[in-house]
Amino acid sequence: MKIDITEIMNRRQYEIPFSYSFDPGKTDAECVDLPEDITIPENGIKVEGKITDNLGIITLKAHIKADYITPCARCLEEVHGNLSFDFERTVLADNTSRVFESHITDDGEWDGSTDDFLYVNEASVIPDADIIEELSLELPSFTLCSEDCPGLCPKCGKPLKDGDCGCKEEKYVNPQMAILQKLLENDN
Length: 188
Ligand SMILES: [Zn+2]
Ligand SMILES: [Zn+2]
Hints:
Blueprint: E1 3-4, H1 6-9, E2 15-22, E3 45-54, E4 57-71, E5 78-92, H2 98-101, E6 117-119, E7 124-125, H3 128-138, H4 175-187
Parallel strand pairs: 5-6
Antiparallel strand pairs: 1-7, 2-3, 3-4, 4-5
């Protein structure tokens, strides 16, 4: 969401609280792509925080809560997960700010740091793209519906946790182990 910080830039206000929710499908900001198997429900990302001006150094601090849906890595059943993390950025209001100057090297070049900044555009900041980038780092690399999810039956493909599928003579074998087993059998 576009957060108007005119009041801070004009020094009429030193704190602007904000609270909103969004999802990656409904933001104008250009965002990093989340993994394909992650779905964020409508308004699934909740943002609550404030922008403060501390002697000319403007900071955005927020707490993010995000809901997501992803398939279980073993049985592919939909799993609803959620994340909660803190988000903080320094707001660069203009290129004469002290923060900006502190990142100019002795040669007059920008020192290359970009990650921790939000840039002001027409007296507003839009933190959504940065929030999604941070979210992509917070997401677990895989999700299970339960710690001991037994996965799918290798023969009929039914989730084993649903009970007996009728293929009980074959126990689950890791596909790679199955190849090894075949090789060993051929050796004999
Ligand atoms: Zn599962
Ligand atoms: Zn089966």
